[in-house]
Amino acid sequence: MALESELKGWLDAEAPYSWVCAVIGTPHSGTMETITRLASARSWRVIDPPAFEDILSGGREWLEGIMDEGDSPIVIAQLERCYLRHYNGLSLIRRLLDLLLSANRRFLLGCNSWAWAYLNKALDLAPLIPYTLTLRPLDKEHLECWFSSLADERFVFRLADGGDKLVLPVSFNDSETGAQPTGSAGDFLDNLTAYSRGIPGVAWAVWRHSLREARRDEAEKRGADPTGPRQAILVAPWTEMHLPAVPDRMDRSQLFVLQTILLHDSLPPRLIRQLLSLSSTDVLETLHHLRSAGLLDADRLRAMWRVTPEGYPVVRQLLKREGYLVGAI
Amino acid sequence: MNGNELANGEVVKILKDFDKIDFPYIGLVIGLSWVLIESIDRVLPWLAGRLPARFRFYILPLVPVLRLLIVAAGVIIVVPELVQPKPENLIAILGAFGLAIGFAFKDYVSSLAAGVVAIYEHPYRPGDWVRIDGAYGEVVSVEARALRILTLDDTLVTIPHKKMWDTNVYNANNARRELMCIADFYLHPKHDAALVRQKLYEVAVTSPYLQLDKPITVIVAEKPWATHYRLKAYPVEGRDQLLFTTDLTIRGKAALAELGIEPALIPPAMRIEREKDR
C-alpha cells in the first residue's frame, strides 16, 4: 500500500520530527477507508469519533479513553467528526490537540480537507501538525486501469453515439478501431478526469451515472475474438450527461447548509439547525430543495445528509466563487 | 450702442415702446400657461391614480417636465413681445440671464468639479460602504453631480459631490468586499474577563458569515457601569453586515448566558456615550 510505504520512515524513526501525522483527503476520496484498512492490517487501535452531544459538552470521557498502555500508533480516522462549528464545539478538539502534542506517541489522523482548512484558520493547526500527507488524485490512465479492473471481463464499454468507439477496457484489442480508446471515446475519460478532479468517489459515481443499457457487442462479433461474444455496455457521450447543476436562485441559507455539511462531512438535520440557527422548516426545505437538484443526498433513514459525489465539483466551485472557505485541496 | 451708453441708463431702449406692447396677448399667453400648468397638476395625478399602478412611475415624472416646457414656451413667446428685436438687446438680456444662471448654478458647477476630483482621488466608488453627513449606505452609482447611496433601510440618498469639499467621507471597505463589523456587549463587571473574551472569539470564529482570512479581535474596556466588549470581525459579504452582527449578538448572548454571565443593568439616569466609544 502506497500510504504504508510513505509512512515507513515516520514509523521507523525513534524520535520522529512530528509525532502526529495527518492524512488530508477531499470528500469522497476514500481517505478514511484507506487509513482504517491500514490500521486494521497493522493491528493499530482506531478511535471512534465522539457523539455530537459529547463534542458540545466537552467530551471529557471520550478524551480519557484515547490513550492506552501500548506504543503502537493510535488512529483517529475522522478528525472532522471531533469538532462542531459551534461556540461550544471547539473545546474538545483543542484538548485533543493538547493531548496529541504532549503524548510522545504516534498518532495517525485522517481529516476531510474542508475541516482541515477551517481548523487551520480557527485553531492555527498547520504549525502544530506539520507532517501532512494527501492521497494522489487519479489521472486519466489510473482511472482507466481502475475502471477496467472493476469491470467483469465479459463486458466492454462503448460510446452510445451510434458508433462503435470503445471507452474501456484499455487492454482489449478492438479489431475494428484499434487497441486504445480514441477520438470522442478518449475525450470521455478526459472530461471525466477533469470533472472529478481525480477524486475516486466522484469519478466512480459519474462513471456509473454515464452507463446506459447493455447489449450484445455486435462490433466484436465481426472480429476474430477467441473468448467468444461479449456484452457491450453503452456509455453516454459527455455532452449528453446530465450532471447536477446549481439551482437558478441560491440564497444565503442554501450556501451555508452546503458549506456546513462539507465542513463536517455529513450532518443530521437537527444539528444543521443548531449550527446555523435556522428553523426546522427552513432546514428541511433547504435540504430537500438541494436534494432535488442532485447536490445532496441522505442515508436511508434520512439521518445524515452529505454532498453527493456527482455534485461535489459543482458545489465546491459555487462556494469558491461566492468567496466562502473551501477545502484545502 | 456700447457699454457706456448702457451704463448711462438707456436700458429702457431694450424694451419696446409702451404703446407697441400687446398686453392683451401677453396676458392671454400667461393665463393660458397658468391654466395648462394647473390642468397638468390635477389631471396627470388623477390619471395615474386611475390607471394600473405600474403606470404611475411613468406618468407622475411627466408633471415637472411638462411644467418646465410650458414655462419655457411662455417665456419664448412673451419675451419678443417685450424686447426690441435688436442684437445688442438680445446680448444684454442673455448676459443678465447668464449672470443669474451662474449664481443659481454655482453649486451645480461645484459638484461637477468635485465629481471629477472624486474620480481621481477615489474617496468612494460603487460598492463602497460610506458615511457622509449622517447617511450610511452602499454607493450604488457615482454620477456627474452626485452619488447615490442605498441605506440599510433601503432608502436611496442622493448626495452632491460638493459635500466632499467640507465634509468627512468615512469609507468602511474601500473597494474591498469585506468590511469590519462590531458587536457590542455590556456585561456586569463581576465575571472572568479572559473566559468571556475567549468565548466571544469562538462565537465569531464559528459564525457561518465570517470571513476567515481576516482577523477577529475582542477589545475590552471597563466602564463605570459595565465591562464593555467589542467583538470585531469581518463577514464574507459586506451586504450581510447587519445579519452578521445580529448573528454575533444572538449567539454571543446565548453563549454568555450559558456561562452564567449577567448583562449590565444601566440606571435610567445614566447616558450611554456610544459615540465616544466609537
Task: List key phrases describing it.
heterodimer, A: 329 residues, alpha/beta, 4-stranded mixed beta sheet, 43% helix, B: 278 residues, alpha+beta, 3-stranded antiparallel beta sheet, elongated
**Backbone CA Rg of chain B:** 31 Å
Helix segment count of chain B? 10
From the spread of the alpha carbons, the general shape of chain A counts as globular
The biggest beta sheet of chain A reads: 5 strands, parallel
What's the mean pLDDT score of chain B?
86
What assembly state would you assign to the polypeptide chains in this entry? heterodimer
Q: Low-confidence stretches of chain B at least 5 residues in length (pLDDT < 50)? A: none
Instruction: Tell me, briefly, the overall form of chain B.
Output: elongated
Largest sheet of chain B: 5 strands, antiparallel
Topology at a glance:
The complex is a heterodimer of chains A (329) and B (278).
Chain A: H1 2-12, E1 20-25, H2 31-42, E2 45-46, H3 52-57, H4 60-64, E3 74-76, H5 91-102, E4 107-112, H6 113-123, E5 131-134, H7 140-150, E6 155-159, E7 166-168, H8 183-196, H9 200-210, E8 211-216, H10 218-221, E9 231-235, H11 252-264, H12 269-276, H13 280-292, E10 296-298, E11 305-307, H14 312-321
Parallel strand pairs in A: 1-4, 1-5, 2-3, 3-4, 6-9
Antiparallel strand pairs in A: 6-7, 8-9, 10-11
Helix pairs in contact in A: 8-9, 12-13
Chain B: H1 3-7, H2 23-50, H3 56-59, H4 62-82, H5 87-104, H6 106-121, E1 129-132, E2 135-142, E3 146-151, E4 156-160, H7 163-166, E5 169-171, E6 181-187, H8 193-205, E7 217-222, E8 227-233, H9 241-258, H10 274-277
Antiparallel strand pairs in B: 1-2, 1-5, 2-3, 3-4, 6-8, 7-8
Helix pairs in contact in B: 2-4, 8-9
